[in-house]
Design a protein that fits this description.
This protein is mainly β. It has one domain: Sandwich (Jelly Rolls). It is built from no helices and eight strands. Strands 1, 2, 3, 4, 5, 6, 7 and 8 form an eight-stranded antiparallel β-sheet that branches. A hairpin with a 2-residue loop joins strand 1 and strand 2.
């Protein structure tokens, strides 16, 4: 059991329009807080991890397996393992991503 304090977690700048904080995690699960400026892109990609994305604020065009939907605060997306997905930020916003298992590549 561990506690993770937001004040102690530095955001990793991903590019000029996005950054990420890795919050609570262990080898079985991970939650991340992402920040996007308008026009920010989550480049299409896939991974073995199962993912759930919850929109805290803003508006995003989210593409999942070739289908694009506009989503906003309160919406969520379930992303199965190995499915291509990505997004474009339409209005500045934040989201939470939950992964299982942990994304070890985010820890380096």
């Amino acid at each position: 059991m561990s506690f993770f304090y937001d004040k102690d977690i530095k955001a990793k700048v991903l590019d000029e329009k996005s950054s990420r904080k890795v919050l609570a995690h262990d080898e079985d699960a991970m939650i991340c807080h992402l920040y996007f400026e308008k026009g920010g892109i989550g480049t299409p990609h896939k991974h073995v991890h199962t993912q759930i994305c919850y929109i805290l604020s803003g508006v995003f065009d989210f593409t999942l397996d070739g289908k694009t939907e506009r989503i906003s605060a309160g919406d969520s997306v379930y992303i199965p393992s190995d499915v291509i997905h990505g997004l474009e930020c339409i209005e500045k916003g934040e989201l939470l991503d939950v992964f299982t298992p942990e994304r070890k590549d985010f820890l380096s």
